[in-house]
Design a protein that fits this description.
Residues 232-352 form the Caspase family p20 domain. This protein is an alpha/beta fold. 38% of the residues lie in helices and 13% in strands. The protein has 19 helices and 16 strands. Strand 2 (234-240), helix 13 (253-266) and strand 3 (269-275) form a beta-alpha-beta unit. It is globular. The protein starts with a helix and ends with a strand.
Length: 469
């Protein structure tokens, strides 16, 4: 405790008159303390903290989901809290609102002092705090009724995640307020009145909504792939080969899957993820796609494969080489006729030495399983296809064992930042983002990664619906 008090920094607040019983407290929090602190959080506390701390809806949703999907996820240290403005003060404020009394006491802060200082929100978004109070004041029955009243959003284990999904929709906040009003709960109605006040309407940073985009003036409607149902834009299969027979486990790939799922759902693309898929699955891939793609009126199909690889092939979980052109041939199925298809592959395509603290998606040994013959057989049968590779032929693709692969992380980031642009432009931004990363071997040598893409698309592909002006 003495060490903590010695290193706290003074902080003053406009908290009104202070009686003789009250005192200012000092906040001491440094980045190197975060890894020890975050392990004291239960799953529900992680979700509540992330809901309050991250103003951006997309970021908050991503951290909440990863905290639920991966019990070992470092929800604080992996997200560089110290880069946020007044992060230490906001951290303490969030601890107070989620009532983490024990941790506050260990930091030398009593609840009485915290309550006086944070009687009104100072660093946490006022509107986000009001939404959190709604979560705390709803009964289990009311929560269930609320989730059932918004069928476009799947029910969630935690109401905070459900709310974040609503906020990512166009007019999501209004939809949420309308559903809450139908509960006729006087406490909730009072909080809703505060939310609707203009004074706090700018305190929440919503991610860009799925609002329709105006069609570019130089493009006709025939030059753009149509989005038939904005609520069901597409279907995405994610195949993640984590444990490959005889190969090193692909640690960090689950981080990629979590981010991909949240990114695809942001664009109203439904996701089906598969782990440790054997070779036989790829043989039946076309049939499986036909079964699932017919479920809804989808307009685009994504197939994302993450594995070890060698030039022209990826490895299945049973250590069989699967030719990439053989995979593309399976996309030539009835349900995907004239549908834009996007194949994304995170895997090595050659041999570059391992870099310290990084893993590469390449195997130690490989059997080609008639890859050469298959490679030429199916090449000319696919149209309306975009293939994005994490690296060019002959080189390895890097994956951080804790945070995921360079390529997938950059792709999801660029999809969010450039959501209103066509997919080819997004891939171009992704290539630039990946190339900007590097690993220094010494003062004169750096290793970089160079993704590539090949496009057989015949039109522009936008993941947001386009208004036909």
């Amino acid at each position: 405790m003495d060490r903590i008090n010695e290193r706290f920094e003074d902080i003053s607040f406009d908290a009104g008159p202070i009686s003789s019983r009250e005192r200012n407290f000092i906040i001491f929090l440094e980045p190197d303390m975060i890894p020890k602190i975050e392990h004291r959080f239960e799953e529900y506390e992680k979700v509540s903290f992330a809901f309050l701390f991250f103003d951006d809806v997309y970021s908050s949703l991503r951290v909440c989901e990863k905290s639920v999907n991966n019990r070992n996820y470092n929800f604080m240290s992996d997200n560089s809290l110290e880069e946020h403005s007044n992060w230490d003060k906001k951290f303490i404020e969030c601890l107070f609102y989620v009532q983490h009394v024990l941790l506050l006491l260990k930091l030398g802060i009593g609840m009485y002092d915290a309550q006086r200082v944070f009687k009104k929100p100072k660093f946490v978004s006022k509107q986000r705090l009001l939404l959190y109070k709604i979560c705390e004041n709803l009964s289990n029955a009311e929560t269930l009724q609320l989730m059932e009243s918004i069928p476009s959003i799947s029910p969630e284990k935690y109401l905070e995640i459900f709310i974040l999904r609503i906020l990512s929709l166009e007019n999501g906040l209004n939809l949420f307020i309308s559903s809450l009003l139908s509960l006729n709960n006087p406490v909730i109605n009072s909080l809703l009145e505060d939310i609707k006040e203009d004074s706090c309407s700018d305190n929440i940073k919503l991610t860009p909504t799925s609002k329709k985009l105006p069609r570019p003036a130089n493009l006709s409607a025939d030059e753009i792939y149509p989005i038939k149902d904005p609520n069901n834009v597409g279907l995405c299969f994610i195949i993640n080969e984590v444990n490959i027979k005889g190969e090193q486990k692909r640690d960090g790939s689950t981080e990629d899957v979590s981010l991909l799922i949240s990114t695809m759902k942001y664009f109203n693309i439904n996701v089906k993820d598969f782990t440790d898929v054997p070779k036989k699955y790829f043989d039946d891939l076309g049939t499986i796609i036909d079964i699932h793609f017919k479920e809804k009126n989808y307009s685009v199909f994504f197939l994302i494969i993450m594995s070890h690889g060698k030039p022209g092939v990826i490895l299945s979980s049973d250590d069989k080489a699967v030719d990439i052109n053989y995979i593309t041939s399976k996309l030539h199925c009835k349900s995907l006729h004239k549908i834009p298809k996007v194949l994304i592959i995170q895997a090595c395509q050659g041999d570059i030495l391992l870099v310290e603290n990084l893993a590469t998606d390449g195997p130690s040994s490989l059997q080609f399983d008639q890859a050469t013959q298959v490679r030429h057989k199916f090449r000319s049968h696919i149209s309306d296809l975009l293939i994005a590779m994490s690296t060019v032929t002959g080189f390895k693709a890097f994956r951080d064992r804790k945070t995921g692969s360079w390529f997938v992380q950059a792709l999801c980031k660029c999809m969010k930042e450039h959501e209103n642009e066509c997919l080819l432009s997004i891939i171009t931004y992704t290539i630039r983002e990946v190339k900007a990363q590097s690993v220094s071997l010494d003062k004169t040598c750096q290793i970089i990664q160079q993704p590539e893409f090949r496009s057989l698309l015949e039109k522009k592909l936008y993941l947001k619906p386009i208004i036909n002006n």
